[in-house]
Amino acid sequence: MGVLASSLVTDPRELSQLLDIPYEQVAAVHARYPVRVSRYYLELAKQHGTPLLKQIMPDVLELEDNATPPDPLDEENLSPTPCLIHKYPDRVVLLVSKDCASYCRFCTRKRKVGTGDMAVSPGLLDQAIAYIRNTPAIADVLISGGDPFMLSDQRLEHILHMVRSIPTVRIIRIGTRMPCMMPLRITSTLAALLRKFHPLFINLHFNHPAELTAEARAACAILADAGIPLGCQTVLLRGVNDSAPVLQELFYRLLAARVKPYYLFQADLTRGASHFRTSIDTGQEIMRQLIGQVSGMAIPTYALDTPGGGGKIPLAPNYVHRLEENCTFTTYTGTNGVYPNTVWPENDPNA
Ligand SMILES: *Cc1c(COP(=O)(O)O)cnc(C)c1O
Ligand code: SF4
Question: Is the separation of the CB atoms in 119 and 166 below 8 Å?
Answer without folding.
Answer: no
